[in-house]
Amino acid sequence: MRNHHFFKLWVVAFLLYFLSGCATFRSELQGKLASTPEKNYNAKPVGVCFVFSHYRMVKGMDVIPKLENQHERIDGFDDLFLDAMKEFSNIKNYDTYTNYSSDVNDSKRRQLKDSLISKNDFLVDVRIVRQKSFSKHFFAVLGSSISATVLPMPYKIEFSIEVNVFDHNRILVKAYKRNASITKWVETFMIFLYPFYPQDRVREELYVEFLHDIFKQIESEKTLKID
Fold first, then answer.
1. Domain ranges of the chain
2. Residue 155, SS3 per DSSP
């Protein structure tokens, strides 16, 4: 009888875990553009090289941020970038390059990067970092597992984007930064919210706002302008 009762408890715990759901919510953008942006229609068309660096960091585990490889960065980032490019009005042509840690041993890719930068009027260096705390994440997972996901537990991930604009001589023209976070709640009955707040969609929404808001500011401030 005791074994039978123990088996029932395991079945219940398994069902609770199987039916557990998660819902992700995001914060507001810190540093968001307050004024209504103006278009830069009369500016001379320019060439721009966009260089992207995607970093991840686990506080308490990583000493420095680590560059993400091609398979670790957010799915569909190229589409998000293309959508945000609509904010610019005077870019006649552009090139893109994504930094990977393996570039340190690849002279051809380093040369390619330098050639793309040198042939354009401006360099827009985009650095995106996502980070979380190892200790907070560990205890959240532990608490969620002990309670069979009955108790809601949050997993918080911080995001930041830094965009530095350089002229043809590699002199810094302007610097921009935005911060935000997403919090993933795990709990049995979150399964009913999951279809509306999945983590991938919320993260994509955050990246869209990141890029659009900074590109709007670059456009309105006429940063990509040659006198």
1. 2-220
2. strand
Beta strands (DSSP E) in 89-219 are 91-98, 122-133, 153-166, 172-187
CB 205 within 8 A of CB 26: yes
- The structure's pTM equals 0.80
Q: How far is CA 52 from the centre of its chain?
A: 11
Answer whether 136's CB lies under 8 Å from 3's CB: no
Contact criterion met (CB below 8 Å) for 54 and 126 = no
Residue 152's Cβ-count burial label (10 Å; 0-12, 13-18, 19+) is: middle
Structural contact between residues 165 and 223, judged by C-beta atoms closer than 8 angstroms? yes
Q: Which two tokens stand for residue 137?
A: 């994440």
Amino acid (1-letter code) at residue 77 = F
CA–CA gap between residue 9 and residue 96 (Å, rounded): 55
Q: What is the pLDDT of residues 8-66, one digit of tens each?
A: 554 444 444 444 457 778 889 998 888 777 787 888 999 999 999 999 988 767 678 88
- C-alpha span between 114 and 107 (Å, rounded): 11
- What CA–CA distances, in Å, run from 148 to 6, 26, 32? 15, 25, 39
* 181 three-class SS: strand
Q: Which of 31, 30, 38, 122 is nearest to 87 (CA)?
A: 38
Bridge partner list, 182: 26, 157
Instruction: Output helix, strand, coil percentages for the chain, rounded to the nearest 5.
Output: 40, 35, 30
| Cβ-proximal residues to 50 (8 Å cutoff; 6+ apart), any chain | 81, 94, 95, 96, 97, 124, 126
Task: Tokens for 106, please give them.
Answer: 């690849």
